[in-house]
Every structure is written in C-alpha cells, then in structure tokens.
Amino acid sequence: MRSVVAALRTGNAFLYRKQIVNQCRCMTIYESSRKGSPEYDSQEKYDEWLKKPMTEKIRIKSQYLKKNVLLWCEEWKEKLRMDPKEVLPGDRDIQFKFNSQEECEKWIISADSDWNEGFTTGTLETSTAGYGVFHGKLDTSLPKSGNIVRAGWITMSFKCPKKSFNRPNTFDWDRYTHLIMRIRGDGRKYSLMIKTPGFFDIHWLDLKAYSLFTHG
Questions:
Q1: pTM for the whole thing?
Q2: SS3 for the chain, per residue?
Q3: Residue 158 · residue 107 · CB < 8 Å
Q4: Which of 74, 144, 152, 207 could connect to 140 by a Cys-Cys bridge, CB 3.0–4.6 Å?
C-alpha cells in the first residue's frame, strides 16, 4: 500500500509540476505547437532554460524580440504596399535552386538510418556544373531488432521559412497552374508530396501525393 500511495503522490506532484510549467509557458511569447499540446515539448530543454541566470534570459529574449519585431514590420510594409506579383499565362517563377551549397542546406535529408530503422544514407550536394545532386546508398537490409519488416527509404524535404514570432508560413501558389521540375533521374520511381496544412490540427498533416517517374 505504501508503494501505491507513493506512486499516487509522485503522480500528483508530476501533474502539479505540469500545471506550473504550462502556466509559465503561457506568460511567454505564443508559439503554436504542431504536435497539439505543450506536453509533448522537450522537458530537458525547459529544465535547462530554468537553470539559466535571469540576466542571460533577458538578453536572449531581448534579441529574439528585436529580431522578430523588425521582421514583423517588414511583413506589414509588404502587406500595406498592396502590390501583388502579376502572373501572366506562360510565366515561370523559379522557386527552388540548387546552384550553391547554401541552397542545398535549405533541404532536410532524412533516411531510415536516422531512426535506427535501417542502413540507408544519402546527401544533397552541388555539382561543379551548378546542379543539385541527390545521391546515397539505398539499403533494404533489415536491422536485427526484430520489429522492422521493411526498410530502405530516404526523403528530401524543404525547410519552409517562417514568419515573425515563429509563425508557420506557406508558399502562395494560387495563381499558378503547373509545377515544372527539371530532373535527370536514375530510372527509379519517386513520390512527390506537397503539404497543404490547414488552420485546424486535423489538417496539419494534409498533403498531395504524386508519382514521379524518371529515366535512367
């Protein structure tokens, strides 16, 4: 019975601590959680933040506030200018480039090896001719953990820039009708996915999937 009471007391203390953490977070600048609840945030990072001295906290928050206020002002200047880009039939707007390593670093390469679910590796680099080269090793070998039945995948996703105060941002493609991709493939079939997240949480992971066939 003592162990049960101790467990209940520990659970109550944990819930009480969660309430304190949530109340403290409500007093900071609002940042929406794509996971739906602040309970999924990293508790270790929050504990490290609590250990920092008050002077360092003020310095970090002041820099964060100054940077985002300037960005917010630029966003409103662009909005009040009311000068949308005019798109005529046949116009092409280059959205993604791979002519430099800085442009390639805007993409995230993720494989099953990053999750300890396989041995696939890959990278995105810029060639001497100024083109992006996505290459690596696709390994379908299964790890010896016993809980993985399929392996051998790798993804390449774009890090979408955010608005001021860490607000999510999306590309405005309403005036466009086609997506042109100049790709020299290796004969494999790829899957092209375009995320279309909505405002409510049930639409955060909405996406459009298309099959992309390449020639070797």
A1: 0.68
A2: CHHHHHHHHHHHHHHHHHHHHHHHHHCCCCCCCCCCCHHHCCHHHHHHHHHCCHHHHHHHHHHHHHHHHHHHHHHHHHHHHCCCCCCCCCCCCCCCCCCCHHHHCCEEEEEHHHHCCCCCEEEEEECCCCCEEEEEECCCCCCCCCCCCCCCCEEEEECCCCCHHHCCCCCCCCCCCCCCCCCCCCCCEEEEEEECCCCCHHHCCCEEEEEEECCC
A3: yes
A4: 152
Higher pLDDT, 34 or 156: 156
Cα–Cα distance, 74 to 138 (Å, whole number): 44
The C-alpha atoms of residue 168 and residue 182 are separated, in whole angstroms, by 28
Residue 90: left if φ>0, alpha if ψ -120 to 50, beta else—which one? Answer: left
**pLDDT attached to residue 45:** 72
The Cα–Cα gap between 37 and 34 comes to 8
User: What is the rounded CA–CA span in Å between residue 50 and residue 39?
Assistant: 17
